[in-house]
Amino acid sequence: MRMSRRQTLRATVLAALGGALGACGEQGDGRPGTHADSAATGSPSSDRWRMPEETHPHELTYMTWPTRQIWTSDISGVRGDIARIARTIAEFEPVVLLANAGDVRAAQRACGSGVEVIPIPVDDLWTRDTGPSFVLGPQGIAGVDLNFNGWGDKQPHSRDRRVAREILADDRVKRIEAPITGEGGAIEVDGVGTLMATESCWINSNRNPGASRDDIERALKKLFGVTTVIWVKGVKGVKGQDITDYHIDALARFSEPGVVVMSRPDEQAPRDVWTDAYDQARGVLDHAVDSRGKRLEIVELPEPADIGRRGDQFLAGYVNYYVTNGGVVLPRFGDKRADSDAASVVGDLYPGREIVQLPIDTLAEGGGGIHCATQQLPKRV
Question: Does a structural domain hold residue 195?
Fold first, then answer.
C-alpha cells in the first residue's frame, strides 16, 4: 500500500558550480559526523551563509522520479504528473531529475531532452524534503543536509536519507550537516532574515527528541542566516494527521519580504483539525513581526471546493506552487472559478512572471504538490 503524505502511518550536475566537496559536518574520512560535531565545527553562522528567497534566480531545479515501491498501482499517474511538471519547468530553467538506475531511460523518454536525468538511488519523489536546502555566502554556495529520516520514520528512507549527500557530491557543492533533523518543506524564508516554521513538525520526538524550541530555533537561525523565526504552533491533533506533521509550505509562503500568502479553507468546509489549524496560524501571522520589525501583510489564497470525488488525503491547495525563473507553476484542480481566482491572485503577487497551471491529480492524492516535488539551486550572484 502506498504511504500517503497526508495520512498517519504506523509502520527513505553541474561541475561548473565548483565548491569544496566534503564540507562542514563531515569527518576527514568522508563519513558523516555526529550532530554535535556538525554543530561545533560545520554549521554556518548567520553572517556567512543565508538561504535566499525562492524568487532569487535559479541555476536549475532538482526533481525525482517516483518509484513503484512507494506508488504501486498509482505509478503511471504520478509519473505522468512529475514528467508534466518537469517539462514545464524546463521551459524556464534547466531541470535535473534523479532516478534509480533502472528507471533512467523511462524517465528520460517521459520528460524529454529538455530534462537531464541522472542515476541517484531514491525511494520517493519529494525532493523538497530529501534534497539539500541551499544557502549562499562569501564562499559561494553550500547545501544544508537536514538528515531526512522519512518524516519521523513513517516511510522507508534508506535511499532518500542519502539524497542530499549524493546531490552535493555529484555537483561538488559544500555540504553542511545540520545539528537537527527536518525537511526543506518545513521552512519558508523571505531572504532578508525571517523564517516561518510549524512547531508540530520540528519540535517532535520523531525528529528531534529532547530538543526544545529554543534549541531548534538557534540551529535554524545559524543554518539559514535568519534573525527571526515565526512559529506556527498548530492545534491539538495536528501531529500525525499527515505524514509531514504539518509542513509550512502547504499553509503559508512568502511572496516577497513582508507579504505572506496563506491557503484558506473554503468557507463551506466543515470544521476539522485543518480549519482549526488555519485559524490558529492566521492568528499568529496577523500579529507577527518580521526581521525588519514590520507587521506582515496576509494575502489569502482560497482552496477549491468543486473538485469531485477525491481521497481523504488529497492536498487541494494552491499555495504549494513553485517559483521558477520568469514563471510560477501552480496546480489546477478542476474548480474553474477557484482555479481562475488562484491564477489571478498569484499573478498579482508575482508581476511579470508567467503563470502556468497544471493538473496534478495523482500527486495530490499522495498528499503533496508541486513545491514538495521540487528544489531550487540558487545562482551565485
Answer: yes
Q: The domain containing residue 87 runs over which residues? A: 18-28+35-378
8 belongs to a structural domain: no
> Buried b vs exposed e over 255-292: b needs ≥16 C-beta within 10 Å?
bebbebbbbbbbeeeeeeebebbbebbbebbeebebbe
Assess whether 201 carries a catalytic annotation.
no
Residues 6+ apart with CB under 8 A from 78: 66, 71, 125, 362, 363, 366
CATH number at residue 282: 3.75.10.10
Q: How confident is the model over 47-64, as pLDDT tens digits?
A: 589 999 999 999 999 999
Of the candidates 24, 111, 201, 372, the residue annotated as catalytic is 372
Q: Which residues of the chain have pLDDT under 50?
A: 1-46, 235-237
pTM of this structure: 0.88
